[in-house]
Design brief:
alpha+beta, 47 strands
């Protein structure tokens, strides 16, 4: 098979502006710049209102360690003005304090101020008194007056951070397809209130753009839990590398009728910007899809291949709805989907309790690549082979492959053989020719097994060495004592090869923290890691860290670890002491009880009831948490403390994990009462784990102590 890419038709770049304040961040029709230097921004969605205030800083730092440099967050009207004129901007709703923490740690912010958010919330996050208006989400003066008063209170609490550098973007509305007029009205209203940012954005679903006032943003998810049927999904296109593919028409079809969307005629080229690049999915009551690490990686990988220069994940960090109310969307509030009352884990890389999934580590490599090598990648436009043009998003046969290249002929090759729930054919003996402004470049013959991702550079200069290609993915670099060390990882199952002046060679590959340096000149050395080792790799400044524990930087390195974890810093093994603890938990059957929200278990089957107590539960300087793992055969569970719902969960894979520090006060002062409900034959639900009917058994299987230590 022969594939050629012609990168000589590099697009003309035009300056653009979507903001109203001077900033170090600027943009043109292809990419963004920071202090004049091209940059790919990596944004992770985290809803601070759905997380305890005292833990915000730690979670911000976990996100930063994961390669995130912008936090995007809904400002949820329903939380901040639950009753007309009664505003809440304190405690877990103190957005000013959250912004102060972000500024402290150099994290920029996009505020998604609505008024409407969606966010799997009741009435899309609109307070009830607003939702009841006959013409909400429109230019109705009554609606705009209420929104203006709310925004004025919001601005008053956050105005110090609209400096062009902390809050760098505002998203107006969300999932709106009824025309630009209302969106432009909201921008004028936001500016009247005082909001000043480098970029105003809107979700671009159903739109092309005929003005420079608003940046369109896009998205796509690994699955569609909002689909209203109960069978498996066909190929959806979100993992596809193909021309002009920004967003999936299947996104949000539970609330959007794309056929009725107004579409302006004129199209203005804008940078490729995502606000909802799905690295997880929320679980609905009727669909229980399991999002694997490769699912979570596959959508952003294809998005980057297709030219994305602002990668915005949704959700990067899960959370919980506030206790004491019904804030979630449900069919009782006119939504087509039933969701848990509290749980908003979203199967995110950092889950509801801040626990890391495998997807966190896979995506960290991609994020770091964008951070460290984005100055080159940002200028690279995507080019495709006409021989393998994919026009049908359900196509799971045609090779998924493209290059991104700049006007000087430097670029990256991208290829994927991954599709969720489908086995794609392998790529075999693919001969690749790239035509550039500097002549043709023949790349190594490509062979990829199914379920793999490949990304590697060609025509790249590292230090004083110009490489024809390096068949490994770059993820980081640092300079020390005049020597620059570049870190790469094996990609797509391809051997780690390189070529300099058309002379090929092979890298030595590091499979353990005792890394192997490949020397090229007096000022350049390259480390190529196995895929497994790369998932333990961190770079903090010029300190090289390998660990399978949680680590982040806060005036030194902080590590949170369990028995059996390891850590090395610059090749030196770090002792991770795990003093014995005698904490235990007891899960016992109990008599049935009435839970206030037990109807939200949505199961007609026979329920089981338990109590959970902790013995010798102790938190201190070294022990910071206990992770409790359950086996669970039922459909859903709820946990109550003194009659108040504190935890719930829709089962997807037969397990449930909870962090006890989030329930410390309840367990120290008493017990948690648990009710479980089974999957019932007369209430069909789509599942991927093969659950049994009429069984709601819960079993505590493991309690793991988590320790903390400051390293340096």
């Amino acid at each position: 098979m022969n594939i050629s890419f012609d990168t000589s038709a590099y697009p003309q770049i035009k300056p653009l502006s979507f903001g109203n304040i001077e900033s170090s961040i600027e943009m043109n029709s292809l990419y963004y710049t920071e202090n004049g230097k091209p940059k790919v921004f990596v944004a992770g969605e985290f809803h601070f209102e759905r997380y305890p205030r005292e833990l915000w800083e730690e979670e911000i730092l976990k996100m930063k360690a994961g390669g995130i440099d912008v936090i995007s967050t809904y400002i949820i009207w329903l939380f901040h003005e639950p009753k007309k004129g009664c505003y809440r901007f304190d405690g877990d709703f103190d957005d000013g304090y959250f912004l102060a923490l972000c500024k402290k740690h150099g994290m920029r912010v996009i505020m998604r101020i609505g008024p409407y958010c969606h966010g799997e919330l009741r009435h899309g996050g609109l307070p009830d008194f607003v939702f009841r208006l006959p013409y909400n989400r429109s230019d109705n003066p009554k609606y705009l007056s209420l929104a203006e008063k709310y925004w004025e209170k919001l601005y008053e609490n956050t105005k110090d951070y609209f400096d062009g550098e902390t809050v760098v973007g505002i998203q107006l509305e969300n999932e709106y397809v009824k025309g630009f007029d209302h969106l432009l009205t909201l921008r004028r209203l936001a500016e009247k209130v005082g909001f000043k940012v480098p970029v105003f954005t809107v979700t671009g679903w159903g739109f092309t753009f005929d003005n420079n006032d608003l940046q369109g943003t896009y998205g796509g998810y690994p699955a569609r839990p909002w689909a209203q049927h109960r069978h498996s999904m066909p190929v959806q296109g979100n993992f596809t590398i193909r021309k002009n593919y920004h967003t999936c028409d299947g996104i949000g079809t539970d609330v959007i009728d794309y056929s009725s969307a107004e579409k302006p005629v004129k199209n203005v080229i804008q940078p490729n910007f995502t606000c909802e690049c799905g690295c997880g999915n929320q679980v609905t009551e009727h669909r229980r899809e399991i999002i694997s690490a490769k699912d979570a990686y596959g959508v952003p990988f294809a998005t980057v291949a297709n030219g994305c220069n602002w990668l915005g994940y949704y959700m990067y960090h899960g959370g919980s709805n506030p206790r004491g109310g019904l804030y979630q969307e449900s069919r009782r509030t006119l939504s087509p989907n039933n969701l848990p009352v509290i749980d908003y884990d979203f199967q995110a890389p950092l889950g509801r309790f801040g626990l890391q999934r495998k997807s966190y580590h896979m995506l960290r490599n991609l994020n770091n690549c964008l951070q460290y090598f984005g100055d080159g990648l940002a200028k690279m436009h995507p080019f495709y082979s006409s021989k393998f043009d994919i026009t049908d998003e359900t196509d799971a046969i045609t090779p998924r492959i493209c290059v991104r290249a700049d006007e000087n002929g430097s670029g990256f090759l991208f290829a994927s053989t991954y599709e969720r729930d489908k086995k794609m054919p392998p790529l075999e003996d693919v001969k690749i020719t790239v035509k550039t402004s500097c002549g043709e470049r023949n790349l190594p013959v490509l062979n990829m097994k199914p379920d793999e991702f490949l990304m590697y550079p060609f025509n790249i200069r590292l230090g004083n060495t110009a490489f024809d290609y390096i068949t490994a993915m770059p993820i980081a670099h640092y300079e020390k004592n005049g020597i620059t060390t570049f870190f790469f990882k094996i990609t797509g199952g391809h051997a780690a090869e390189y070529s300099v002046n058309n002379r090929a060679g092979t890298f030595s590959v590091s499979n353990s923290p005792e890394i192997i340096y490949n020397e090229f000149d007096k000022k350049t050395r390259i480390v190529v890691m196995s895929e497994a080792l790369s998932e333990d790799f961190y770079l903090f400044g010029n300190k090289v860290v390998f660990t399978n524990a949680v680590i982040y930087e806060n005036e030194g390195l902080i590590i949170e670890y369990k028995r059996g974890d390891y850590c090395t810093i610059d090749g030196k093994s770090i002792s991770l002491e795990t003093p014995g603890v005698n904490t235990g938990v007891r899960l016992k059957n109990r008599k049935p009880f009435h839970g206030r929200y037990s109807s939200f278990l949505f199961s007609p089957g026979k329920r089981q009831y338990y109590t959970l107590t902790a013995e010798n539960l102790a938190f201190g300087e070294s022990v910071v948490d206990y992770i409790l793992d359950f086996k669970f055969e039922g459909s859903a569970l709820q946990m109550y403390y003194n009659g108040s719902l504190v935890n719930d969960f829709f089962n997807i894979d037969g397990s449930h994990t909870m962090s006890l520090k989030y329930f410390k006060d309840e367990l120290l002062n008493g017990r948690l009462d648990i009710v479980t409900a089974p999957f019932a034959k007369r209430h069909p639900i789509y599942t991927e784990a093969g659950f049994k009917f009429n069984n709601a058994a819960l079993k505590a299987v493991r309690l793991t102590a988590i320790y903390s230590k400051k390293l340096i």
